[in-house]
Amino acid sequence: MNEAQKDPMFEIFVSEAKEIVSSLERIFIELKEGNRNFDVAVAEALRFFHTLKGSSAMMGFDDISKVCHRVEDIFVCMRDEGKLPTNLDNFILDMLKLIDFLTIQINRIENSQQPQDAENIEEVLEKVEMSLAENDKVQAESEKRYHIRLLFEEGWEMENLRAFLIVQNLKQYVKVLEYLPSDIESNMASSEKIKKEGFFISIETLLKKEDVVKLFESFAWVTDIKVEEVSEKASLTKEISSWQNAIHSTNKLINVNIEKVDKLIDLIGEVVITFSMIVQHQEIKTDENSSFKNLTLQMSKLIRELQEVAMSMRMLPLSSTFQRLKRTIIEMSAKLQKPVDVHITGEETELDKVLIEHLTDPLIHIVRNAVDHGIEDKEERLKKGKGTTGNVYISAKNSGSEVVISIEDDGRGLNKEKILQRALERGLITSPDDIGEDEIFELIFQPGFSTKEEATEYSGRGVGLDIVKNSVQKIGGRIFVESEKDRGTRFTIRIPLTLAIIDGMLIDVDGNVFVVPLSSIVETFKLEKQQIVLENEIPFVYRRGICFSVIDLNKMFYGKDMLAKERPFYLGILVTNGEKNGVLLVDNMISQQQIVIKTMPAILKQVRGISGCTLLGSGNIAFILDIDALLER
Amino acid sequence: MQEDLLSNKVDEFEEAMKDMYLIFKVDDQLYGIEIKYVIEIIGLLPITYVPNQEEYVKGIINLRGKIIPVIDARMRLSKPQKEYNERTCVIVTSIDDFLAGIIVDHVSEVAVINKDQISSLPQTYEKIDERFFRGVASLNERLVLILDCETFVKPDRINL
């Protein structure tokens, strides 16, 4: 096994297998939601299982290939003999179990662990095999609908007119319902669209699928014909988007080891720094040669662009994470007998891969809470005049340099009284008056806080929302909760787009340069010494009716008292982490720039208040301040 | 077949490096560390002080874009501090992929010291931190203290 691991073939196998498994998961979830035609799903799943069977057999992972082989048989049965599972929902849940099994096996293989016992999965397989009923599909002799995608060979040009020709020709044989792009006669730009995405047609005919394909074979410029039979309602636009995903994910992606990307980003970071060292070099700075200045300007633009491209390589859409959430909800809803609809928006929003990895578990936790605690039983919902089916809304969107993810349910909402009571019991507050109305919900993020008495399969496993909050904060994010009784609860998570580069303000503290993340700065201001109150050695300032504690970086890090310096005025930076505020005293503000974050060497002791470091144009090192830790006192 | 050759080469290389030591000086005493840990030897670079570290950790340096900690051999060996000068240099070491620099007075040479030339230190000297030392060897009639690079560089409290 270890030998195999060094093999690039092994890496390819693992990444391909993972991709297949996640595609399978998507197929079955879409099938469950009725967004996918059963036959189409069967055909696609069959293809995936077949591929996985082949590659795992080749790599010698027999347990995977055996399971895939069995499943393949089942699917062939369904495709060719018209057998159908008696209960589609159970069938899908079983398939998901199977996909879990495959996922675990693949992960174990990747980490060179012993594969899991396949016995449980044997049971599942037998169950599925038994459940295939003999009821042959009704082969109605009615007109059928087909969705067709044609890809054109490159270099023929005038794609729109060619498409038009096809449509005209087609009309003799079949009823053409719709085609996309629809403006092929008039809009020359549609040509580009066809080149990129293909030409889509929706037809109705008595012809069999094979015969439909034949209709197109006479057109020399058509390179790829994809025909799918669809149900009455299926809209072409929806189908297209799923095809488009398929095109994009199969033809235009390559797998790259994340370490290589990281290395590339590191290197570019170094180029950025070296370049600014060149620009600031004495010999060049004093040189008045303007052509050189032009060159450096151009170079800096290029480097910035290069940096952006490299960073974007780490960015992944949230769709697979959302898919997992959806799946969690589907499974829970089946087990808890609570019908739940999942509404997802903005799944194409991209986020740094590392951040996504850290986010998945907290999101799953919130989703579980929503279904388990939030959404009521059918009867209770009816009594409240709600529909029997609960709703969970999952959404993501970009907002400035942040991504905002929200998870909302239309359940019973958080119970204020219970939370207060619990907080009193736990000694988090001494009286209900201690806490403002809008702060009550924040209590649920406190360690050891759980309003649910009994543990269920999905919650009460000792992991609370405090862990969720911690992991969100660890990646520089913030989490908020809103809730209204009987209306629902909404969690909002705001996270920076990426961890590797931030906008920062360079500040000078007694000759030492620090970076303050721009996102945490509220305002900067001058203040005179008498504005700083010193009570029992603890400095604070009073500003616009609010008291802020003063953080003396010089004292914290270097043991020197900032206030000991006599100066006409001090510079203060008001910083916040969304909850707490504080004022940093600094000698000077140097500049604002993009900062490439580097981690502190692991063998150093952790320094409270410093989250990492960066290299400045001069080649010097500056520390990046950890505002959260500074405000936490 | 080719892989075999390659791995043989690697083995040979490791075999050849096995008994090689980088000898450096602190005050007038010679110390040796196994050459397999040594990446390169550089002149002193500007050091950025890092708060809240052991005294012998002088800070971090920017080695061509890599940020690595530097420790002062003199202070790690509990010797009095001395001003750095132009002969002061930094031995960049790598232990399990963790880079660290050791600031020494002067690097003198690379020498071959066979295992049987190394004898253990006498147990009687309380002032010697014996965790650091593998033993002592004689080189051209001068004594070299063989350091255990791992315990010397890694802080006492972390298991990396």
UniProtKB/TrEMBL annotation, chain A:
Name assigned to this protein: Chemotaxis protein CheA
A GO CC term attached to the entry: cytoplasm
InterPro entries xref list: Bact_Chemotaxis_CheA (IPR051315), CheA-like_dim (IPR004105), CheA-like_homodim_sf (IPR037006), CheA-like_P2_sf (IPR037052), CheA_P2-bd (IPR010808), CheW-like_dom_sf (IPR036061), CheW-lke_dom (IPR002545), CheY-binding_CheA (IPR035891)
GO biological process: chemotaxis
Entries under CDD domains matching the protein: HATPase_CheA-like, HPT
Lineage start: Bacteria, Bacillati, Bacillota, Bacillota incertae sedis, Caldicellulosiruptorales
EC identifiers of the protein: 2.7.13.3
Keyword Iron-sulfur among UniProt keywords: no
EC supergroup of this enzyme: transferase
Alphabetized SMART domains for the sequence: CheW, H-kinase_dim, HATPase_c, HPT
Domain CheW-like: start-end pairs: 501-633
Transmembrane helix listed as a keyword: no
Role summary: Involved in the transmission of sensory signals from the chemoreceptors to the flagellar motors. CheA is autophosphorylated; it can transfer its phosphate group to either CheB or CheY.
From TrEMBL, chain B:
Gene3D superfamilies: CheA-289, Domain 4, SH3 Domains
Pfam families: CheW
All residue ranges annotated as the CheW-like domain in the record: 18-158
Entry superkingdom: Bacteria
Example GO biological process: signal transduction
Alphabetical list of PROSITE patterns matching this protein: CHEW (PS50851)
SUPFAM superfamilies documented for this protein: CheW-like
Family annotation (SMART domains): CheW
InterPro entries noted in UniProt: CheW, CheW-like_dom_sf, CheW-lke_dom
Name recorded for this polypeptide: CheW protein
